[in-house]
Amino acid sequence: MLVDELCRLYSIIKTILNYGLSDFVPTHRLIFPLRIGSRFLLRVLNKHSQLTLGERFRLALQELGPIWIKFGQMLSTRRDIFPDSVADQLSILQDRVAPFDGIIAKMCIERAIGNSLETWFKDFQEIPLASASISQVHSARLKKNNKDIVIKIIRPGLLPIIKIDICLMYRLAKWICKFLPEGRKFKFLEVVSEYEKTLFNELNLLKETANTIQLRRNFKKSQILYIPKVYVDFCSENVMVMERIYGIPVYNLVALKKQKTNMKLLAERGIEIFFTQVFRDSFFHGDMHPGNIFISYKHPGNPKYISVDCGIVGSLNKKDKYYLAANFIAFFNHDYRKIAELHLDSGWIPLDTNIEDFECAMRTVFEPIFEQPLEKIPFSKILLYLFNTARYFNMEIQPQLILLQKTLLYIEGIVRQLYPNLNLWKSAQPFLERWMRDQLKLSTTICALKDKIPHWIDKIPELPNLLSHEFKRSCMLQKKIEILIRELRTQRTNHGQALFLFGVGATLVTSSIFLYIQDKYLKIFSIFLFVIGIFIWTIGWKRIIQ
């Protein structure tokens, strides 16, 4: 482990100790001694005992940096896991992280645009509107049209810390795979790689600019979601300029209710936006924590979402979308056989899995859960039980679904805060069934063929060459297979002969030693047998290494 990684690991442990987070140590009996020791140490070293647990947890995550802050943002939506006192503190991490100096921000902006800030903007506010884990936002106005805008700037000095944290995550993932055989099926290395990619994408504001433009295009005429305009002339890797939006933060339930917002419709539209992005567009906002979502002041009876911070986006291919939708519908219908078949067909579980056993395991786990009212059953609980059950059948975690799962948890947490009695399953089912029906329509098939036909036409002139090339490759492959079969047969014969020679040699060596000890008149003969035995052993060894 490198020195900088050791220093960072020391810093992480020290922060955890300094904030006395003993109450988050699990109570499982296998780590009971660790819990006792950590509770003693944490309480001895706790420098913030006057603060509540929620405050200590938030401050520790904030001190540890962007990766940890993003973890806290996700946890802030899980009020079914944490008490309100903790969730309220973690929600501060959504857009109220301690800011960096506005003067430094101004200098970074001027360096990025290559001019003094006053050349293009006016009324720049050094006090930020919002400050998050990776960036902060300042308000200003465009001189050319007097439009209100916001300027987003990446926090300086983040990259070294993020790189070290990612290295530590990789090292931990390798240790898990090495020491826990079951850890391999969870593809921790692939998960860390996926997280690294999305995190570094978020550090590049040009990618966020492109993502925002794409999402805005997808919902250009939408009545349920608005994406603000981006001023691309001023955007770079470290700076992004976009129109300023005005709305109520989605977590401000008091303000939403005060203006008589239709909370049930608002919650339903949150589910609709998520499934529309995933299944219609195959392009979804992957960082939909409450700090990035606002509700328009206009038409509270017909509420409209406003979404910002599109640095993290995800997409699914057609196969993944189909299996995901089909799995949800099978859950709606309690069709556990279908769930088992889908997992097998998609390759999520090994092909030699006993499908009847998998179906039985699913039914055993989920039937008691579905006895509860559907509105009380969280998606997160279903996912948890699904993975725990499938784990016993060697299911491999799909890295491409990790971001989708995180986004679904965000949406579920937000929706349940807005309207706790909403039946998420009932809201999602019509959308998924309609999408599945659309995939089977003749018009959908014709459209898919129309998209492919130009590509096929381009390939027709090349078809003879392609067929000839494939024929040659097939012949070469056949020859290689024949050579490999001959080599395997030769190797098998050599190994058989080697085992025989080893046996003969061992018998001769053992006999020679016995004769040498027992009969002094046969010493010369025993030495002769020993030499012959070693010689036969050598021949056997040569047979193996040939």
Automatic annotation (TrEMBL):
<keyword id="KW-0472">Membrane</keyword>
<dbReference type="InterPro" id="IPR004147">
    <property type="entry name" value="ABC1_dom"/>
</dbReference>
<keyword id="KW-1003">Cell membrane</keyword>
<dbReference type="Pfam" id="PF03109">
    <property type="entry name" value="ABC1"/>
</dbReference>
<dbReference type="InterPro" id="IPR045308">
    <property type="entry name" value="UbiB_bact"/>
</dbReference>
<keyword id="KW-0808">Transferase</keyword>
<protein>
    <submittedName>
        <fullName>Ubiquinone biosynthesis protein UbiB</fullName>
    </submittedName>
</protein>
<keyword id="KW-0997">Cell inner membrane</keyword>
<dbReference type="InterPro" id="IPR011009">
    <property type="entry name" value="Kinase-like_dom_sf"/>
</dbReference>
<feature type="transmembrane region" description="Helical">
    <location>
        <begin position="498"/>
        <end position="518"/>
    </location>
</feature>
<keyword id="KW-0067">ATP-binding</keyword>
<keyword id="KW-1133">Transmembrane helix</keyword>
<comment type="pathway">
    <text>Cofactor biosynthesis; ubiquinone biosynthesis [regulation].</text>
</comment>
<keyword id="KW-0418">Kinase</keyword>
<dbReference type="InterPro" id="IPR050154">
    <property type="entry name" value="UbiB_kinase"/>
</dbReference>
<keyword id="KW-0830">Ubiquinone</keyword>
<keyword id="KW-0547">Nucleotide-binding</keyword>
<feature type="transmembrane region" description="Helical">
    <location>
        <begin position="524"/>
        <end position="541"/>
    </location>
</feature>
<dbReference type="InterPro" id="IPR010232">
    <property type="entry name" value="UbiB"/>
</dbReference>
<feature type="domain" description="ABC1 atypical kinase-like">
    <location>
        <begin position="93"/>
        <end position="343"/>
    </location>
</feature>
<keyword id="KW-0831">Ubiquinone biosynthesis</keyword>
<comment type="similarity">
    <text>Belongs to the protein kinase superfamily. ADCK protein kinase family.</text>
</comment>
<keyword id="KW-0812">Transmembrane</keyword>
